[in-house]
Each structure stands twice: as structure tokens, then as C-alpha cells.
């Protein structure tokens, strides 16, 4: 079948192969670092982190670039409000990004360029556009003339005659066209600036991404990704300035994820419903947040509410239950080799079927809801296979389960890890102590230990192989 992806540029699903064998050039728009990242930012970072992981698992070498916009009007405003230098604001929130992205298990990119470290490349790109006649000056600013680029609007499907000014363009002067955008801004008093052929100033937002993408990935990218809100004007403007300068297609595939709503309302500061990753991670496991974001196809809007987050958290608990059961059986067959049975091929074949459905879903425009459904069926099947009543288990089946779990973690990053394992060790200690009490017929102590385990949210099941335990809400 191969991989298909929905290309915003053509408005259809297309078979994906990189322009260069085995190497994928992948750019994702990163954060503007003036505040903590929120769940909307996280959707971009988590989804395309997982797509990158999947492409790597498929055998491609992915050169993955995610930038930091570290000079911007929002950063300048925050710096003024807090009485700090803009660079201090940017540095602080880059550090906070690393903390939150790390908790979400988002892998570091191949390159994390910062706009302020690439001003020479930005100036060089503007000079190329200037030499080709795509720019003009107004009151010290350098603007891109969109009328000189006949294909302007091909990504957003907007008609040039009907376009309104982009959200980040200040209406300060008369432009040739309403959609013309700033490449270089003349310095204002108190703002950071760089020397340039047009005087002291700083880059516009759009030209930053083009310059950084082209430096690390060349003039034509395989994939350019971001939120649907970036289609216009940001990605449209990137296409115009990049292709005007190079004469080549800027990106072969544009991928965009849908909007996020919070409790059926658009997330916005005016509504006071911004959910930061920091606050969510204080309540929900990072894996649950990833599962929640994967539960809706990336191109569709998603509604974040307690019901979705609680459901995702319960999903992680089901995975933990499987990990407990698998470890329990692995330990028991090591202690009792007579419990090792033969696999006639049926069970291992079932696991391969689930694995095939999982991969097939991801190959089809990265359909994570379908992939999660296939994995959920595997978890259900595996828990039944691992019931103590079975009596015998095949090592190759247990190994196939481990391999599937490892693959899911490598791609989606949803297998729970961390502090819960420390909790498991504490429960295991109580269970072993209870088994010792039962052996000497100290039933009151055994009952007290069962109650202690129950208070911690676990139920015990005494089996011929010993006592197994699971979260109370996982019974059955």
C-alpha cells in the first residue's frame, strides 16, 4: 500500500515518497517563545513528532527541523510588560518549552534554529528577492509585492482581489496590495535591531521560517507542517517568497492539523480557557495527553474536555494492566518452566494481525484513531491470553507482545513509564508480604494487607500461580 498523506496544496490524499531515496526533509513551525505552550501548540508538536517517528520506523532518515521564533511583537510586548530584555523572555520560555516537550515525550528535532541566529541568511534571502524585483520599500520597511507572484493564493485557495491583510501585518502605510507583507521592519526606539542594507531593523515573521527551512533542508522540502491557522497568511507567504527567490517548489506536501476547542468553545485568552501543557501534566499522565490528541484524526477539529481526558487516562490504565499481567506471567514461567506451552501459530498470528492493522491505519494519512482502535483490540486479546486460568503460555507469543508494545511506544509514545512503576514496586512488596502471611495462616494480617492494597486503588486475585493485582477500575 505505501504511505498516503493529505496534501493541503492539492486538496487530496497522495502517495508519499521523498524526493531523495531514504531521506525526508521535514519542517514544522515551532513556538513563538513568549509564554508556556498550551494544548493547541501541543497538538502540532505531538502529532508531527509521531509522524516523524513513524517515518523513521518505516526506515527513512528524517531530517526534522522545528524552529523557535525568538523575535516577535508578542515577545517585545511581554518584555515591556515585565521590564525585561526581549532575549531574556525568549531564553526563559525556550527553557520552559524543553521541560514541557520532554514531559510530553516529544523528541528533539535534528535542528532547532532560532530566528535571531539566522539574520544573515534572512538578509541574503531578502536580497535575492530584491534583485528579482519582488520587493519595494515603504517608510523604511521592505515589503513583498504579491502581485509579482502569479500563483499567490494556491495553498489557501484565496483570490488575491479578495484577500484581507494578514493578522500580523500592521496597517501603518499604503501598500500596493492588501496582502503584501513585511520582509524587513525598520527599527523602532527600544526594540532589538540588526544592521542591514536597508538600515537598522529586524526580520518579518514569514521570512524567518523560509530562510531557516532552506538553510537546513534545501530549496524544496518534502513536508512542511503546522496548524490549520498557519495556512494563511504564514504558509502562503512562505511559498510566495521562497519560490520567488529559488524558482523551485518550496514544499511537496503541506500538512495541517485542525483546530482545538475547549469544552466546545474556541480556545482563546479572551475566554480564559487556555489549557497549558504544564497544568494538564499536573493532572494527567503525558501518555494520556498524547492518546487524547491521537483520538481524533489530525485533520479534524478536536474538542478537549474532562470526558476525553479521563477516557485517555483510562486507556493508559488498561495498558498498565497489560504490562502488569505480562510481567506476572513472564515471572511465573521462569519460576515454573512446566508452564511453558507450545504456540501452534494461532496466537502469534493474531498479534501480527493487530500489528498489521495498526501500521495500515498509520499508512493511510496517519489515521491515529484507527491505529489506537487496533492497539486497543490487541490489549483486550492479550489480557485474555494472559489470564492465569490458561495455565500454559508460549514464550514466542509473550515476545511478540513485547515487540508490539515496543513498536507502539517507538511510534506513538503512549506506553506508560516513570513513577507508576515505583508504585508497582510498593504494591508488589505488600502482595509478597501478604503471601507470606497466608503461608503461615495469619489471616488477619493477610486481610489487613489486602485492605491496604485496596486503599491504594488495586484489587487482588488469588490464582494457582500466585496473586495478581490490577487497578480497581480495570476489573474485567
Overview of the structural elements:
The structure is a single chain. By secondary structure, the protein is α/β, with parallel strands linked by helices. The protein folds into three domains: 3-283, Rossmann fold; 305-414, Four Helix Bundle (Hemerythrin (Met), subunit A) (Up-down Bundle), CATH 1.20.120; 418-476. The protein contains 14 helices and 15 strands. The chain has helices spanning 39-57, 73-82, 86-103, 119-131, 205-217, 231-246, 277-281, 286-294, 306-335, 346-363, 368-385, 395-412, 419-439, 443-455; strands spanning 4-7, 12-15, 23-28, 61-66, 135-138, 141-144, 181-186, 201-203, 221-227, 251-257, 260-262, 265-266, 302-304, 458-463, 466-471. The strands form five sheets. It has a four-stranded parallel sheet, sandwiched between helices. A four-stranded antiparallel sheet has the order 5-6-7-8. Helix 6 (231-246) links the parallel strand 9 (221-227) and strand 10 (251-257). The relative contact order is 0.11. Mean pLDDT is 92; it is low at 165-169.
Keywords:
single chain, 476 residues, alpha/beta, Rossmann fold, Four Helix Bundle (Hemerythrin (Met), subunit A), 4-stranded parallel beta sheet, 4-stranded antiparallel beta sheet, 14 helices, 15 strands, 46% helix, elongated
CATH H-level homologous superfamily name of the largest domain: HUPs
Q: Mean pLDDT across all residues, rounded?
A: 92
Pattern of helices and strands? EEEHEHHHEEEEHEHEEEHHEHHHHHHEE
Structural class: alpha/beta
Brief sketch in words of this structure:
This protein is 46% helix and 15% strand. With 476 residues, it is α/β, with parallel strands linked by helices.
Amino acid at each position: 500500500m505505501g504511505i498516503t498523506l493529505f496534501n493541503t496544496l492539492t486538496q487530496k490524499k497522495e502517495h508519499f515518497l521523498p524526493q531523495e531515496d531514504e531521506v525526508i526533509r521535514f519542517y514544522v513551525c515551532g513556538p513563538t517563545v513568549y509564554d508556556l505552550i498550551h494544548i493547541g501548540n501541543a497538538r502540532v508538536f505531538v502529532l508531527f513528532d509521531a509522524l516523524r517517528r513513524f517515518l523513521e520506523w518505516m526506515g527513512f532518515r528524517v531530517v526534522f527541523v522545528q524552529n523557535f521564533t525568538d523575535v516577535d511583537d508578542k515577545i517585545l510586548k511581554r518584555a515591556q510588560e515585565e521590564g525585561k530584555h526581549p532575549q531574556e523572555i525568549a531564553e526563559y520560555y525556550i527553557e520552559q518549552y524543553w521541560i514541557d516537550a520532554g514531559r510530553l515525550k516529544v523528541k528533539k528535532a535534528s535542528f532547532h534554529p532560532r530566528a535571531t541566529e539566522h539574520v544573515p541568511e534572512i538578509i541574503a534571502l531578502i536580497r535575492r528577492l530584491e534583485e528579482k524585483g519582488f520587493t519595494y520599500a515603504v517608510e523604511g520597511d521592505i515589503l513583498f509585492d504579491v502581485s509579482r507572484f502569479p500563483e499567490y493564493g494556491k495553498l489557501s485557495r484565496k483570490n488575491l482581489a479578495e484577500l484581507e491583510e494578514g493578522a500580523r501585518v500592521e496597517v501603518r502605510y499604503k501598500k500596493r496590495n492588501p496582502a503584501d507583507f513585511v520582509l524587513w521592519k525598520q527599527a523602532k526606539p527600544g526594540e532589538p535591531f540588526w544592521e542591514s542594507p536597508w538600515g537598522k531593523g529586524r526580520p518579518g515573521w514569514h521570512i524567518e521560517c523560509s530562510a531557516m527551512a532552506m538553510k537546513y533542508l534545501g530549496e524544496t522540502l518534502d513536508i512542511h507542517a503546522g496548524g490549520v491557522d498557519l495556512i494563511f497568511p504564514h504558509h502562503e507567504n512562505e511559498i510566495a517568497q521562497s519560490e520567488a527567490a529559488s524558482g523551485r517548489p518550496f514544499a511537496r506536501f503541506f500538512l495541517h492539523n485542525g483546530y482545538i476547542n475547549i469544552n466546545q468553545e474556541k480556545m482563546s485568552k479572551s475566554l480564559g480557557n487556555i489549557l497549558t501543557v504544564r497544568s494538564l501534566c499536573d493532572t494527567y499522565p503525558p501518555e494520556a495527553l498524547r492518546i487524547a490528541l491521537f483520538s481524533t484524526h489530525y485533520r479534524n477539529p478536536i474538542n478537549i474536555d474532562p470526558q476525553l481526558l479521563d477516557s485517555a487516562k483510562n486507556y493508559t490504565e488498561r495498558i498498565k494492566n497489560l504490562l502488569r499481567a505480562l510481567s506476572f506471567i513472564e515471572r511465573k514461567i521462569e519460576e515454573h518452566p512446566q508452564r511453558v506451552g507450545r504456540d501452534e501459530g494461532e496466537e502469534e498470528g493474531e498479534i501480527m494481525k493487530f500489528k498489521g492493522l495498526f501500521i495500515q491505519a498509520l499508512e493511510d494519512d496517519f489515521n491515529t484513531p484507527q491505529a489506537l482502535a487496533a492497539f486497543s483490540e490487541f490489549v483486550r486479546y492479550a489480557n485474555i491470553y494472559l489470564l492465569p486460568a490458561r495455565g500454559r503460555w508460549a514464550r514466542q507469543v509473550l515476545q511478540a507482545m513485547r515487540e508490539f508494545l515496543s513498536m507502539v511506544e517507538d511510534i506513538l509514545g503512549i506506553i506508560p513509564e516513570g513513577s507508576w512503576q515505583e508504585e508497582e514496586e510498593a504494591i508488589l512488596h505488600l502482595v509478597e508480604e501478604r503471601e507470606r502471611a497466608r503461608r503461615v495462616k495469619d489471616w488477619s494480617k493477610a486481610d489487613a494487607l489486602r485492605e491496604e492494597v485496596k486503599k491504594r486503588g488495586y484489587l487482588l486475585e488469588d490464582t494457582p500461580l500466585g496473586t495478581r493485582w490490577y487497578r480497581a477500575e480495570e476489573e474485567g
